[in-house]
Write a structure and sequence with these properties.
It is a single chain. By secondary structure, the protein is of the alpha/beta class. The chain has 2 domains: about 100 residues, Urease, subunit C, domain 1, CATH 2.30.40; about 300 residues, Metal-dependent hydrolases (TIM Barrel), CATH 3.20.20.140. It is built from 16 helices and 16 strands. Strands 1, 2, 3, 4, 5, 14, 15 and 16 form an 8-stranded mixed sheet that branches. Helix 5 packs parallel to helix 6. The relative contact order is 0.17. The model has no long low-confidence stretch (mean pLDDT about 95).
């Protein structure tokens, strides 16, 4: 199959006007100007016309099973109040509710250009049924906590690893998610790091998300400290250390770690993350919802960390009266641009594509249009000049014009017939 478009944006290489790419066996085998492709390859030609063709977006952090909680939690006075609210809402959900929420979220992402998503699975019982409900490429991280249940950390970890072993996914992948530095006992963090290294698993955890979390670890006080102490969390790992330093002490910083948020850093935290090779996920709309202090993008970038974008869940996105909010990586790019006007549009696009792929260990496979990459491709309408292409991408709103995953149409362009 040969796809032709007004503009092709490979991300890893310069833009191509009147470009095309060739797909064979679900992989990209050529990307070049149309004149070069037309003279070298034969196959079914799909001329998509006035569009920008770009790699499918990589959502590096999501909670699909919270999608239907959109708008259920208003602005709270503190992060811990939000935790209390979502905990109460989750108590009223059953498996069917979670499944409906997960599937609805996956549909939102598909329509709005995501082709790969790293999802935190709070209800692993949904797998593999949930995977089978969507063509999305899913990287499922199994959530682990255990503070309130008082279950043994080793047993929690064994069950998660057994789940991974039992599913043995093919296209989709799995990892471990000790939920957060504050909500996971130190022993579980420690054991997760060891097991992940032994079994070559990736880890994802929330860290340094809120001021309350920083106060808990560094000053051994505050609303989060008091709340968790009342819920039987052992608090002797707090005092005189940052949340990032706590993860370093547990031995889980490293190239296989996706550190979600990293909003509240101190002293050498950025260097710790960079030197360990840990990846950072920023969720712009969630950041705005909690009224956090500005995300330390330049500090982390200067230190040399790989930074990518995620949607988080719709339970932490502002919803205006009558507004329909979506899980949408274009919205995240737009929100990031507004908060970081000095960052170029092409850099922002990399945060939502190549950088996310690197964080998931999928560099060269997704997040870019290059020879050998998976044919995960999206198209958005565009009739402007090539110079404005990146700006058009990060300001795009609504659904995409087409989406392809593994060389198969996930959202078929209206210009193509059903048998093309």
């Amino acid at each position: 199959m040969i796809l032709r478009a007004r503009i092709v944006v490979p991300v890893s290489t310069p833009l191509i006007e009147n470009g095309a790419l060739v797909i064979d066996g679900g992989r990209i085998i050529a990307v070049a100007p149309w004149a070069e492709i037309a003279g070298r390859f034969k196959g079914t030609i799909c001329d998509l016309g006035e569009v920008i063709l770009l790699p499918g977006l990589v959502n590096a952090h999501c909670h699909l099973d919270y999608t239907n909680l959109a708008g259920e939690i208003g602005t709270t006075s503190s992060f811990i109040d939000w935790i209390k609210s979502i905990t109460t809402l989750k108590m009223g959900m059953d498996r069917a509710d979670y499944m409906a929420s997960w599937s609805r979220g996956a549909q939102m992402l598909l329509r709005t250009g995501t082709t790969t998503v790293a999802d935190i699975e709070a209800v692993p019982e949904l797998l593999p049924e949930a995977w089978q409900s969507t063509p999305l490429r899913i990287y499922s991280f199994l959530e682990m906590t255990g503070i309130k249940s008082r279950r043994e950390p080793e047993r929690i970890l064994d069950e998660a690893c057994s789940k991974i072993e039992s599913l043995r996914p093919s296209r989709n992948q799995m990892g471990l998610s000790p939920h957060a530095s504050y909500s996971t006992q130190f022993e579980l963090l420690l054991l997760s790091g060891v097991r992940a290294r032994q079994q070559s698993l990736r880890l994802a955890t929330h860290v340094a998300e809120s001021a309350e979390e920083f106060e808990m670890f560094f000053h051994k006080r505050g609303s989060m400290f008091d709340f968790l102490l009342a819920n039987n969390r052992v608090m002797d790992d707090c005092g005189g250390i940052t949340p990032v330093g706590h993860l370093e002490r547990a031995g889980i910083l490293g190239k296989n770690l996706i550190a979600v948020h990293a909003n509240y850093l101190h002293e050498k935290d950025a260097e710790r993350l960079a030197q360990s090779g840990s990846h950072i996920v920023h969720c712009p709309r969630s950041h705005t919802f909690f009224r956090h202090r500005p995300f330390p993008f330049l500090e982390l970038k200067t230190a040399g960390t790989n930074i990518c974008l995620g949607t988080d869940s719709l339970a932490s996105v502002d919803k205006l009266r009558g507004q329909d909010i979506q899980l949408n990586m274009f919205e995240e790019m737009s929100a990031f641009a507004k908060s970081n006007p000095s960052v170029s549009p092409d850099t922002i696009l990399k945060l939502a594509t190549m950088n996310g792929a690197l964080a998931l260990g999928m560099k060269g496979a997704v997040g870019e249009l290059t020879i050998g990459a998976c044919a995960d491709i999206i198209a958005i309408p565009y009739s402007g000049g090539i110079a404005d292409s990146h700006e058009a991408i990060i300001s795009h709103s609504g659904d995409v014009a087409a989406s392809m995953i593994d060389g198969q149409w996930a959202l078929r362009p209206e210009s193509l017939s059903a048998n093309e």
